[in-house]
Amino acid sequence: MTTVQLVVSIIYFILALALIAVVMLQSGKSAGLSGAIAGGADTFLSKNKAKSADARLARMTKWIAIAFMLLTLVQCLLPNA
């Protein structure tokens, strides 16, 4: 294994862990519905805060997934030693 392959593999592993963590941190799509049925009294500010956090996590998921796919392609194109 060359140095380049080792570095790419380490970055690949870190991206995989980051992708798992970001996906697990996102709230489910049914979280808002269960809160409405349960009668949760959310203030206007807490609703906007949750939406911004969810939006930020969704953007992070998108960019980490793109980097993960590109790094997968790079790993496939690297010559095997």
Describe the structure concisely.
This protein is mostly helical and 81 residues long. The protein is built from 3 helices and no strands. It is elongated.
Describe this entry's structure for a reader:
The mean pLDDT is 82. The chain is 80% helix and 0% strand. With 81 residues, it is mainly alpha-helical. It has one domain. The longest helix is centred in the last third of the chain and has 34 residues, at 44-77.
Fill in the keyword field for this structure:
single chain, about 80 residues, mainly alpha, elongated, about 80% helix, about 0% strand
Estimate the helix proportion, in percent.
over 70%
Tell me the overall shape: elongated
Order of helices and strands: HHH
Provide the β-strand percentage band: under 5%
Mean pLDDT: 82
The number of helical elements comes to 3
**Uncertain regions spanning at least 5 consecutive residues:** none
Total tally of structural domains: 1
- Rg over C-alpha atoms, rounded to the nearest angstrom: 19 Å
Q: Span between N and C termini?
A: 6 Å
The biggest beta sheet reads: none
User: How many beta-strand runs?
Assistant: 0
Would you tell me the structural class of the helices and strands?
A: mainly alpha
